[in-house]
Every structure is written in C-alpha cells, then in structure tokens.
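Slide 14.
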Amino acid sequence: MLADNGANLVIESAVVEKVFGGLGIDDSKKVIVYGEQDDPSSARIARSIIYHGHTDVRMLDIGFQAWRHAGLPVTRGMPQITPAQFKSKPRNDIRVDTEIIKARMDDPSFIVVDARTLMEHMHASRGAKLCAA
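Slide 15: predicted structure.
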C-alpha cells in the first residue's frame, strides 16, 4: 500500500518483477547500481532491489561524472538484454512503520536516522513553527 505522501517508496511486486526481469535481473546476477554522487535515486533503486529479495546488490562508490573524469571506461552502446525471471520476495524485516517506531522510542538500542536533505529538513521545521504559532 502506498502512503499518500509517497514516503514509503515501495514499488509493487508485479511492477518490480516486470521492470527488473525486463532488465535481465534474476537471482543469478550481481547488480551494480550507479548514479550521481548527490542524487538519492541510485540508493532508492538498490534498496528496492534488496527489499524485493535480491541478495547480490552493490552501489558504485563514486558518481558517474567522477567515473568519467577518472578516465574509466564508458560506452554509449546498449547491451543485448535477455529478459529474466525476477521473482519478488519482499523483505518486510528491513522496513518499519510508525507503530514500531512509537513502541521503541525509549529503547536505547533502537536508532532512527533522519536522512532528509537540508532543504527537506528546513521546510519541515518551518512548517512545524507555523503550526505551533
């Protein structure tokens, strides 16, 4: 189920199977996800693949422009992709919801990390001040 604000960013299993399978991804493949250094899209894609049960996913440790600047190989050619059978096996153990967070707020072994960008944080803080006034 999708949240009204899109916060959960979880893709439905049927969509994942079609998209990732269409890219040739199945359990036999190692998946390397890359993007730009400051763009969270690659992390979201990697997380989606992991959430849906793929166990061999990595993220490139530098952005694409840094890769190119370093003179590493790049091709504009499209590889021949053989569709594969990607089977979604959702890992609900890597997600939490509001109720879990509320129940564990006083547990010192439970850590919540605010991963919002500075702009998102500033916008939310400004809204909170307006609401409190």
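Speaker note: Residues 13-132 form a domain with the Oxidized Rhodanese; domain 1 fold (CATH 3.40.250.10).
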